[in-house]
Amino acid sequence: MSDTATANPDEVVTHARVRRIELPDGAGTLAMITIDNDRDHTRPTTFGPAGLAALDAAIDEVSAMTDISAVAVTGKPFIFAVGADLSAIGLVDQRDVILEFGQRGHAVFRRLGELAVPSFAFVNGAAMGGGTEIALHCSYRTMSTAAAAMSLPEVFLGLIPGWGGAWLLPNLIGPAAALEVIVANALQQNKQLKPKDALRLGVVDVVLDSADFLEQSLRWAAGVLNGTVIVKRPEIDRENWDAIVDIATTMLDEKVHRATPAPYRALDLVRAARTCSRTEGFAAEDEALADLVMGEDLRASLYAFDLVQKRAKRPMGAPDKSLARPVRKVGVVGAGLMASQLALLFAKRLQVPVVMTDLDQERVEKGLAYIHGQIAADRDKGRLTADRANRLTALVSGSTDSTVFADADFVIEAVFEDLAVKRTVFTQLEAVVSAECILATNTSSLSVTAMAEGLAHPERVVGFHFFNPVAVMPLLEIARAEQTDDATLATAFVVGKQLKKSCVLVKDAPAFVVNRLLTRYLNEIVAAVDEGTPIDVADRASNALGLPMSPFQLLALVGPGVALHVSETMHDAFPDRYAVSDNMRRMVEAGITSVWIPGDGGTPILDPRVNEVLVQGDSPSDEEQLVQRISLALADEARRMLDEGVVAEAQDIDLCMILGAGWPFWLGGLTPYLDRTGAAEMSGGRRFLPRGVASLPG
């Protein structure tokens, strides 16, 4: 048995224990290494210096066994391993320390692929980062159907796979599939591989049922050793390897515009993996890892990761959940696309009856048809069983009569963004629902307090702002109006959690957090165009931030009409900072939904109608000037929001922008970026966060 202590008292000890197992069918004896941090069963298994020493000692032990046929590695229940302890790495400020740590991990892990006998990884649970790399070093890999996920998420955090993944994976499954895992998935908000995905790509050799996963893995391993199981691996396209990386580079440029180095270092490593040796590839990983850990992106990413993993799960200001009322039936006012998405989400997550209403039966039927179509599509794709699909379909109904809400416990309106319309809806609802029924609004910019005025029970009105598409976007802004009571707020947070959303408490202020900041951002861009800045220059200005879409792509997604309406709302609230563009108004009147239209070969070109309505001044800005203008405006608005108490702390602004606007992890959220670039101090004379938070220590 191999055990070791650690010199770092904060490191959770990772053990590597060895036992002998007789394989079936006369295949011999297998030495099983089980990695586990059994001092803390609540935490995934990670590797610090002591954990690497423990694994190294276990490999020494199995290497000394002369009577074994194979070696296998597996993890504790539900967890295979998740690699290095990044929270500790983020505190290191000496490059040589990281370089040595990377070299040490390579030296230990590669031994699994260089034993005198075949090695197997029995991936019984989640495998991420170094955990996936342990499996890649082995000769063969099985995976349980119950394994939650597999990934190489390092690029998502501003790093590269640093313990063999950038060399091993492309040489196992080819450059295109490897780049899907290493770069593309990482940049899709850390998309994970399910077992079937890992099998499809060839990352694992077989997926086995979780009920008797270990027994099946041992039988499968015995078959490999006896020759009765033939393992087929993907054919690797080495002839077009460089061309594949070139295409990936072009696509990456379009997405992140070289705003962060990590994905480009990963591309370089994958490119080199075609011709360099294993030792050369691992050495290149060591150098890239050491460089990136010394950069700002890792610290920013760890800060963002901490917000999403911890702060989002314990919302600031949420009342005690014991105050929440039970929700046994949900009502949705409206049957349009947004309302239909909400109804489907409530039915899926709460498993309670959901009823929609609208002005006429045709609209109701259209909304129900959308929901039934989505359920059927999930059933056809295997995401739902036929029985589950039937039960979901039966949960959702529709009507033109608001009395169907009489026994509802929670009713949310998703009608046209007009205060008078929404107030009328709430007045009508109050006449039919119980006195304790929660009345929620999905408004994106209007005053929740104003909607509740004149009601007999304004204390049960709450803002419940989702982001589109509802099923995908994780943020839910919960707005407390002036008279919202604790029971209502507690119910809203409990329901939000049941919907699997990350909830942030916001003050009932115009546009809350995300839309207020995005509107200020777009306002500055549009103002610059009004002043004479060419549209293509204005659209490129934010490339340096690596945002998921350019300003005018965002405008097209939101819709110029909606954007104009929000601008008007914000102008009414803050006329000194939010202008209403005459050019925007003319675009809406002309029916222009996007300034860009497909040109020859699909390349976007300016819609000719834009020039017909565009009236510009003679004071253009260049990209650098516009980036500074945007940064100062966002810093000013964020500081005002904190002064007004829109959220409790700067961390909540960052959490909202990460989850609601796709703000990149490597920027760490909005306020760390504003601190690092100096915009925070230039706009208000002080930083948003203490030094060392989301930046290099000190």
Q: How would you summarize the topology of this molecule?
A:
Blueprint: E1 15-22, E2 29-36, H1 49-63, E3 70-75, E4 79-81, H2 86-89, H3 95-109, E5 119-123, E6 126-128, H4 130-137, E7 140-144, E8 150-151, H5 165-173, H6 175-187, H7 195-201, E9 206-208, H8 213-226, H9 241-256, H10 262-272, H11 278-293, H12 296-309, E10 330-333, H13 337-350, E11 354-357, H14 361-380, H15 386-395, E12 396-399, E13 410-413, H16 419-430, E14 438-441, H17 448-452, E15 461-465, E16 475-480, H18 486-498, E17 502-507, H19 514-531, H20 535-540, H21 551-558, H22 560-573, H23 582-589, E18 596-598, E19 604-606, H24 608-613, H25 623-644, H26 650-661, H27 670-677, H28 679-684
Parallel strand pairs: 2-3, 3-5, 4-6, 5-7, 6-8, 7-9, 10-11, 10-13, 11-12, 13-14, 14-15, 16-17
Antiparallel strand pairs: 1-2, 15-16, 18-19
Helix pairs in contact: 1-3, 3-11, 4-5, 5-6, 6-10, 9-10, 10-11, 13-14, 14-15, 19-25
Q: How would you describe the overall organization of this protein?
A:
This protein is α/β, with parallel strands linked by helices. The protein has 3 domains: 15-294, 2-enoyl-CoA Hydratase, Chain A, domain 1, CATH 3.90.226.10; 321-507, Rossmann fold, CATH 3.40.50.720; 514-645, N-(1-d-carboxylethyl)-l-norvaline Dehydrogenase, domain 2. Helix content is 46%, strand content 12%. It is built from 28 helices and 19 strands. The strands form 4 sheets. Strands 12-11-10-13-14-15-16-17 form an 8-stranded mixed β-sheet, sandwiched between helices. Helix 9 packs antiparallel against helix 10 (262-272). The relative contact order is 0.07.
